[in-house]
Write a structure and sequence with these properties.
10 helices, 6 strands, alpha/beta, Arc Repressor Mutant, subunit A, 2 domains, Rossmann fold, 6-stranded parallel β-sheet
């Protein structure tokens, strides 16, 4: 990962804040500011103009979804700044609210996963590059929703695996690496998935493909 990356961190728990700063530092990412409330998060982001903002959802001043709201405000004001939101609880609606109509440069991770440094640094790398990094448990929740006449039932087990990884934000190459198959094999699965789900092939960009899948899953 590039050592030139700059991050702003929003986390009101001292131990968690220090731990995340340590993980980022070891990966060569410079934390230019670390704050404990959503108001300061927005202010220092505008001041420092970092490559990525990493924030907890629940922070002062209200200890509600202040961090999420701050992240949405930052995305609206500075779309070139990548944003990763950390959540203590699994809530797919938070992830979908953050993504909105554009999943590029967005990450949503459960805090418990960040205990593994590679998870956080991989997410940073993907969102800074313009991709997305959505927690697998969030995608599993969306995949598990009951639907009438559910087209997901027509997917093969391998297609469901590919669909989940697509929704998390992985490219065809990334999916191939995780499933130990070839890229052409993944491409065939992707075509089959879009056909069975009645979705238009969103091949013009990775984030449009992710958005198409998420729109389907949240129906």
């Amino acid at each position: 990962m590039s050592s030139s990356l700059r991050a702003v961190l929003g986390e009101d728990q001292t131990i968690a804040r220090e731990g995340i700063m340590t993980i980022l530092g070891r990966a060569g990412i410079t934390v230019v500011a670390a704050v404990d409330n959503a108001v300061e998060l927005v202010r220092v982001t505008e001041e420092q103009q970092p490559d990525v903002v990493i924030t907890d959802i629940r922070m002062p001043p209200k200890l509600e979804a202040d961090g999420l709201l701050a992240a949405q405000e930052i995305r609206a004001a500075r779309p070139e700044t990548a944003v990763i939101v950390l959540s203590q609880f699994l809530d797919a609606s938070y992830a979908l609210d953050l993504v909105g109509e554009d999943p590029s440069g967005v990450g949503y991770l459960l805090k418990e996963k960040v205990a593994s440094p590679q998870v956080l640094t991989d997410a940073v790398e993907r969102v800074v590059a313009g991709g997305s990094a959505l927690d697998p448990d969030v995608i599993s929740t969306l995949l598990g929703r009951k639907r009438r006449n559910d087209p997901l039932a027509a997917l093969t087990p391998r297609e469901r695996d590919v669909l989940a990884l697509m929704a998390e934000g992985h490219s065809n190459t990334g999916i191939a690496g995780k499933l130990f198959v070839t890229v052409p094999a993944v491409e065939r699965h992707v075509t089959g998935i879009f056909t069975k789900l009645g979705l238009a092939q969103a091949t013009s960009s990775q984030h449009r493909r992710v958005l198409a899948v998420l729109r389907y899953l949240k129906q």
